[in-house]
């Protein structure tokens, strides 16, 4: 009796809420607010259609509303601003008006730890980025390339999917979404954090970082402390990893050996803020987690997409091999940083991969003060969020001809790129500012510091593949469609390639 009463009451309440919500949207349109994407379920809003395929969601609504519109997702009001102007509006907004920390900290702080990135005032983040950037010099990159080459070789030798100790294995199938994250974290930790940190990945670090990963998901973006095992394991792993970095730091301070050109040493030497405060060892430890995580999923996704596109394009693979031979000779001497600088096709393969598959589809800011959108009568109120989607103009035929074709050559000759600079002073295709259709690394104060490193890491790894292997997608399969269910845009499974060695037995791996 009382159960059915409550059941009926809940149902009636639900129906009323849905109807009121629908009527409100249809009847009350505030001309000073961006148009709102229609949604049936209050609070939940457009979470499903946005979450499943954000680019389709953006495109569908752009057709209805133009470049600016608002959607509701799990209680948040998010205003999307598309196109180069939208990029500029969101990414170059003043820090007094919008903040990244209030949009991201609930997700990132449990993963990185306290006192760094979004768990500190923005002025501190700006200085932390400067410290990190100061480590990433040409000199450091020169020393990194041989380290990456060596890591890639060691990986092939140890990985069961590659040579696994049998250097004469002539072919096999490899699951890229297993292999590339591993190669990424080994190469990044070895170069950015040094030998001892890299060695930890042969022990417990790999599993602990796995646990961190599993606590860095869209679910945790919405419910940061949802009581599931993934959340508890995340917190345990964060503490253990941070403590391990602390041990490494103490050991380096004890021996006084700061000779390696890694980012950790730069922090140990130079991380003193302008007001004289020195970063604590705990903060430096947490910063190391932030830096590794910042580059991990982004770079692993990018190398996977690149290898998939190359697997589907023999002519491009051949051209890249030819480039290796031209720069390094028919014997393919060991790759150096300076060689990479002479390989424009390799570089443009990375650039084109990031155009079609920027790892991050949504860059968000919390709105701290009512924000007028220039050139419109719209005001985004305090408490809402704004969202830039740099990936949208990157596949818009207004800026890139045949945008869904993977064509690294378009960058070589700047062909199939529509140069708006010629039409409009405000636009440049690859500009330092934010009003650009090509921004895979973001723009403005939160712009990525890892771009150069990513090119060195990805360039070296891809060059190693080109030199050693021929490969293709199994059964003549096409490049997979994107999967948006994790924090970065990944190729949908299966992410396998089938490889054969170019010259079995010639090189002693
Ligand atoms: C292909 C590789 C990468 C891509 C596509 C990428 C992309 C991005 C993007 C789009 C942003 C801006 C986020 C926003 O505005 O909300 C960003 C910020 C950042 N990235 Fe990267 N990233 C990559 C690699 C790396 C690497 C290797 C590192 C570390 C060495 C790194 C460290 C950072 C840091 C510290 C920020 C600044 C966050 C802020 O200021 O709020 N990234 N990255
Ligand atoms: C391919 O790799 C698997 C491990 O993933 C291994 O068991 C198998 O022997 C390899 N096949 C060849 C032909 O080397
Ligand atoms: C490759 O791209 C990076 C990043 O955009 C750039 O700094 C570098 O100069 C480029 N190198 C070549 C050879 O084009």
What would you note in describing this structure?
- Belongs to the cytochrome P450 family.
- The structure is a single chain.
- The protein has 20 helices and twelve strands.
- By secondary structure, it is an alpha+beta fold.
- It folds into two domains: 79 residues, no CATH class; 295 residues, Orthogonal Bundle (Cytochrome p450).
- The strands form four sheets. It has a five-stranded mixed beta sheet with strand order 1-2-8-5-3. A three-stranded antiparallel beta sheet has the order 4-12-9.
- Helix 8 packs across helix 14, helix 12 packs across helix 14 and helix 14 crosses helix 17.
- The chain is globular.
Tell me briefly what this model is:
The chain is an alpha+beta fold and 509 residues long. The chain is built from 20 helices and twelve strands. The protein has two domains: 3-81, no CATH class; 122-362 and 448-501, Cytochrome P450 (Cytochrome p450), CATH 1.10.630.10.
